[in-house]
């Protein structure tokens, strides 16, 4: 009877997964086998392995890597300091709060800040440095992307640090470990699960960015997400757009498998 009740509870979840996860993926895979005229073809997959799309794929992974790296370098110290401060819940809320604002509004806000007559250039003029072309550059694209994804990196790392047993740090210090050694041998290894979760939460959506590339980078940065948008909305080549999406889904699935959390015990860490 209990097993039957559990099965009934699983029905809404399974329906949700089938309708909103499995069905869209199957539909995308189906469209990838058709050309602009609606004829069955494998040419889309052959076209994807041409230098143009391979270069675009490499560019997407490179920018996603940079965004994830800078987000991690900022988020880990931030999350660590949060665990040591008073009113940590309030500070955490302030970090999360910008993620509640619409992405388009944030993009236009940065256009105003980084524009030729924006606040940043005005400050540069006042300091004597002079105006600079900040908008429509690689720097502005990476900067805005990191700002957008910071909360998604901070949260899992903060949760991992909060769950860390403080007695382990006391034991490390009693054994003569310096602050850096304690971080390297105790804190970071025990919070690697949060780091992996944060990296996945940033790297995977960063691969498919398209709005930021258009508004902030001015299409100077071309990613797989930009190509998908162009094929579906501009060229109307749904087959090629679906083919790129298929490879993007495969890449995301591989990343999730490779960076999947494997629980490590304290004994495993000490052995290292």
TrEMBL record:
The chain crosses the membrane at residues 7-33, 61-83, 90-114, 134-158, 238-258. It is found in: Cell membrane. Its main location: membrane. Gene3D superfamilies: MetI-like. Pfam families: BPD_transp_1 (PF00528). It comes from the Bacteria. The keyword Ribonucleoprotein does not apply. Keywords: Cell membrane, Membrane, Transmembrane, Transmembrane helix, Transport. It is a multi-pass membrane protein. Residues 57-259 form the ABC transmembrane type-1 domain. Belongs to the binding-protein-dependent transport system permease family. CysTW subfamily. This is ABC transporter permease. It comes from Paenibacillus chungangensis.
